[in-house]
Amino acid sequence: MSGISLNGLASGLNTGEMIESLMKLERIPYEKLGTKKSTLSEEQGLIRGINTKLVTLRSAVADLMYSTSYNLTSAKASDSSVFSVTATDQAVTGSYNVNVTQLAKKHVVSSGEFSKTGQDLTAGAKFNLFGSGGATAAEITIKGANNQEVLNNLKNDINAAKKGVTASIVETTPGKQTLVLTTDKFGADADIQFGTMPGTPDGHVYLDGSDALLKSLGIKKADNSLNTRQSAQNATAEVNGITVSSASNELKDIIPGVTINLLKENASSTITVATDTDKIAAKIQTFVDAYNDAITAVRSNSAKDAKMQGDSTLRTLQSELNELVNGQVKGTGAYKFLFEIGLEIDKGVTSGKEMTGKLTFDKNKFTEAYNKDPGAVADLFSSNAAAANKDKGIATRLYNGLFNWTKTGTGLLAYKVSGYDADLKTITQQMEDMNLRLTMKEKQLQKQFTAMETALSSLNNEKSWMSSQINSWG
């Protein structure tokens, strides 16, 4: 009879509902544990999120700990039609006159001009093409029923060979075509030549075939020279009077940290490399955004009626962040506080209810302060002169201080996360044990009510028998 409920057949009671009601009461402690587990899991997730924001903040201030972050430059050309210019953040400042005398060009060679429907080219003839990929040649075969097919097959086979030259077909006049070969690279050292690739590839493209074949194609002229349409050449320019040469139209690091892309021959333009305060301000803005993101997460989750209202760890973190950002820097520079260069917490806020703890960034004030004393701005952030961390530069002390909070495994937030892990593990085990007991309790109640119904049924049967016996006496 174990596990079988007669559900009031004898007693007339809804024993199923009675068991369900009793088990709801029994499960109240279990449900409370489930709520507690959910709360702890949510809090743990919040702590992990705050830790991520602090790691982002630490990365942002790490970029402000070095003097190079306050010497960022950019380059501009006075005439961008002559050349375009890009620069690294640490390009050397100065003014440079660049006179472009010659652009780098690719070697362009063509075949003769052929009627599309003609049959001037003999199928089956072959020549070798050397270039990219080393001394191994690609064998190119003349094939096709007419000149148009031959030229088209040559184009496809040459391009498929990938030997440093690209073929195309140009219709020179109606009904007539020519094959055009253009080197993939610029410069004199990547031109097309006749012969066989040397054992050590030298960057040139080589055509190796019989004179009769190459002349029938028109690639080799009667004087045995190439049918060149554009000669390969290097770029040449003068930078502040010094002649430079390049196999491409890109002049890289001729001016340290600057790349020049030449666009026009026989033309001049001036490059100005100067300190770029916008780039420097952008790094400061990245720090401000990361700080505001972190402090907002800390304050919003520990404020009144928040999920972690009054949490001691978050209160301590909020206090430390405020101290690290607002405290005086004991460096050698003229600036000692962030507000002196345009960064201020809760600027203009007078009511405690309106305070957010967030930084505001006045870019104009920052630029003015930087232009007045760039070294002092750098010192305010990156100074490492003071013995105590709280007296170092803003970026330096934040970087050091946040390490105690964010260190993997042993940081304060990692320690708090591991504490949640332990609590959650304990609660999970308690819930598993309690659920087992509840299951046993429910089975026990079912047995008890089933036994009761069985007993009542037996008594009812006996009662009916006795009544029938008494009635028979009359």
From TrEMBL:
Keywords: Bacterial flagellum, Cell projection, Cilium, Coiled coil, Flagellum, Secreted. InterPro entries: FliD, FliD_C, FliD_N. Required for morphogenesis and for the elongation of the flagellar filament by facilitating polymerization of the flagellin monomers at the tip of growing filament. Forms a capping structure, which prevents flagellin subunits (transported through the central channel of the flagellum) from leaking out without polymerization at the distal end. Residues 424-462 form a coiled coil. It is found in: Secreted; Bacterial flagellum. Signal peptide: none annotated. Homopentamer. One of its GO terms (biological process) is cell adhesion. The keyword Secreted applies. Residues 11-107 form the Flagellar hook-associated protein 2 N-terminal domain. Belongs to the FliD family. The keyword Secreted applies. GO terms for cellular component: bacterial-type flagellum filament cap; bacterial-type flagellum hook; extracellular region. This is Flagellar hook-associated protein 2. Residues 232-461 form the Flagellar hook-associated protein 2 C-terminal domain. Transmembrane segments: none annotated.
